[in-house]
Specification:
This protein has helices at 26-37, 58-72, 87-100, 117-130, 142-145, 151-157, 174-183, 197-202, 217-228, 232-249, 256-268, 287-303, and strands spanning 10-12, 43-46, 77-81, 104-107, 135-140, 163-168, 188-191, 207-210. The chain is an alpha/beta fold. Helix 3 (87-100) runs parallel beside helix 4 (117-130) and helix 10 runs antiparallel to helix 12 (287-303). The longest helix has 18 residues, at 232-249.
Length: 304
Amino acid sequence: MKDITKYQGIIPAFYACYDENGKVSSERTKALTKHLLGKGVKGLYVGGSSGECIYQSVQERKEILEGVMEAAEGKLTVIAHVACNNTADSCELAAHAESLGVDAIASIPPIYFHLPEYGIARYWNDISAAAPNTDFVIYNIPQLAGVALTMPLFKEMLKNPRVVAVKNSSMPVQDIQMFKAEGGEGFVVFNGPDEQLISGLAMGADGGIGGTYGVMPELYVKLFDLCKAGNYEAARKIQNDADTIIYAMCACKGNLYAVMKEIIKIREGLDIGSVRKPLPALVSEDMEQVKKCAAMIDQAIKAC
């Protein structure tokens, strides 16, 4: 049985780091990597939704992953999301990720055209074949991808020995239990929705990959440790605090990632830029709410 301990824990979805002109910044990418490493997280999920991957070129995504790998220095589990909306570019990113020594690659299904399940399976297996020595993680996020990971498709993908995990961002917590049961001993399932991490862990998730982890990693690391110790009452308090903060951040006009990047700048003095169009940047009237959210995070961390 494979050692899955490297996938057990809190894995923030890495934010895209831009310079003042909106270009990918290797320097800021490395700085954010080192910052999160110092917060005690298990690893990083690079190039996913939080990384604004669909708005970046193949070359930019390579540069970001290279910066992360250099700064991580082998001290973090790194999962590289490599999906593009065509097979050739996805395979190119997969091969590049393997050449850098990532722990795993991941992929959503192709978006826009609704492909038959055999077409999705072929897409994923083609990507996996481009990185034949690297673990493969299925990213199930039906609310954005437009297609769900069904049990027949999952069973088909389990024929590929490189498929070791599902990043499950569907809302029903029951899906975690189903994928764990069908995947068998040693198969990994990550909880995706940040707002229900405690529920996902209770249902058997091995860890969590989340978009808000990077702005308040202390809360999620503590929540995970409490759940592993069986102290769900204390964990529930932290989950409630995190959810309240998430709702407050979503009250801004600017995109959630823009909000979180500004909070990191306020709380940590770390400037990683804004977001890439067409994602809405912060507007001046957001700043009072952003500062309020930063204070809420400080208070929640002190309380836990």
